[in-house]
Amino acid sequence: MPESLSGKRAAATKTRPDQRLTLAALRRRAASLEARNAALAEEVAARDAALAKLERQLRGEERLRLAQHHAGIGLWAWDIGSGEISWSPEYFALHGLDPGQVAPSRAAWIEAMAPEDRAAAEAAVEACLNHCDAEYRLEYRVRRPAQGERWLASRGRLVRGAGGEPQRLIGLTFDITDRKRAELAIAATNATLRQEVEEEARAREAAQARLFQTLKLEALGQLTGGVAHDFNNLLSVITNGVALLKRGIEPARRERLLDAMEKAAHRGADLTRRLLSFARRQALRPEPLDLRAWLEEMRELLARALRGDIAIEVEAAPDLWWARVDAAELELAVLNLGVNARDAMPRGGVLRLVAGNVELDALTDADRLGGAFTRIAVHDTGTGMAPEVLARAFEPFFSTKDVGQGTGLGLAQVYGFARQSGGTARVASRPGEGTTVTLLLPRAAPTLPAGVAAVPPAPRAAEEGAPLHLLLVEDDEAVAELTAEMLRHLGHTVTRVASGPAAIRALTEGLAVELVLTDVVMTGGQDGLELAKQLGRNHPGLPILLYSGYGGAPARVAAAGLPLLRKPYSLEELRRALVAARQSGG
């Protein structure tokens, strides 16, 4: 029994081969199902995520569409290859178009805008297609029946293919009418303000012109009064002297009277020279001048001209430049300043001349001077000037001196000389602290060895020569009579005509002369300079001498290369000028 039971159990525990195959298949099947279930779960999760994303996109697009709708922004797209154009409902509305009646097209877009903007719109599109790598931008107007004229702005991008060819132009359009109206309002306001400013400027200029005219008339009146006063004094000496001479007086009194008349004439000539210098019409002869040597000479001249209780000090910079200036006129100007300083120091004092160099910038300088200048400062320790006097220091005929003590042309002459020389004059003064007048004169390159002053050499005495037959051209009877008498006194024969054309006729008709003496300023349509030029063409080699008292004549005559005798001139000056003209012309 025991053995049979154990045998049965052993037999029961044995598995048949077909049963083992079934279990393995079941396990594989279960694993496959589990894998498929996992893949299905992943697919379901992916679809859920995609659905959620799509839902979010739909919600975003809806919000964008709502925002676009409420903002009135129109979307547009143009497929360049197919020519298809799409517009959003807002785009139709912005242009006042009905989607049911108008199909999106380039022609419909152009038709919807204001005619005056169509050419610019077409040009903008073509420009973008040809070379648009940035944002497409355009502003134009549309006119809608219900709302009138509206301004629209378009912004877009050009999409290109792999080969760079244009494929699509997409963008948006929105209303900018309010902005444009604000810009137009601002522009109108600016135009109004600009007009008001211009009117105010014109009114101010007119007021300034009236003020300038008033000041000019005031200055002219002051100038005329001063000139009349001084010349009347001089004329009184001369006319009264002539009257006494005609009555006949003893020789001693006649000599004293003639001396007084001669001095009056010289004072008149000096006054005229000062006036021309003030007006900057006096001809200058600027030359390079060694200021260091000139200052030492000026020290000696001032020492002789001023009182002994005035000490004269001179200081020059070690590297002092040369100046380009008329040495004689500079001497007169500084001597004038020295005399003014003397009068301002009745109890004595110090007169200092300080010379140095200065570079000026025309952008910052008060007189708009630029470049290299020499500076000569003349300082005194006198009474100084009050501000109201200082403000008028350079005015002609303004003087604080007693009547008869000065003409009031001193500082005005100095200023005119400095300006005509290409520089300027400046004055600084305070009551009780003295006065400083500074001359700024253009720098010049040295032309002589250091220490040698560029002072013009004295004219060489010339031989008087043989008597001449001269043609005198002068339109003023009194001047012509006196000049002819002077020429006869020198031994010359004189033929006188009153105009340039008369001189031409006389020479053409055979008048033989050896020299022509002509005034520069004459009536009759032809002045002396024009006459000289014509004579040079028609009668080459004929010596010509011009004379004038007009301030503008020297520059014109010098430019023509002709000799000039300046009025007033002495008998000796006339003689030397005739000799020089004959030598240069013959």
UniProtKB/TrEMBL annotation:
InterPro entries: CheY-like_superfamily (IPR011006), HATPase_C_sf (IPR036890), HATPase_dom (IPR003594), His_kinase_dom (IPR005467), HisK_dim/P_dom (IPR003661), HisK_dim/P_sf (IPR036097), PAC (IPR001610), PAS (IPR000014). One of its GO terms (molecular function) is phosphorelay sensor kinase activity. Its EC number is 2.7.13.3. Keywords: Coiled coil, Phosphoprotein. Residues 136-188 form the PAC domain. Residues 23-57 form a coiled coil. Residues 226-445 form the Histidine kinase domain. It catalyses: ATP + protein L-histidine = ADP + protein N-phospho-L-histidine. The modification 4-aspartylphosphate is found at D519. Residues 469-582 form the Response regulatory domain. NCBIfam families: sensory_box. This is histidine kinase. It comes from Dankookia rubra.
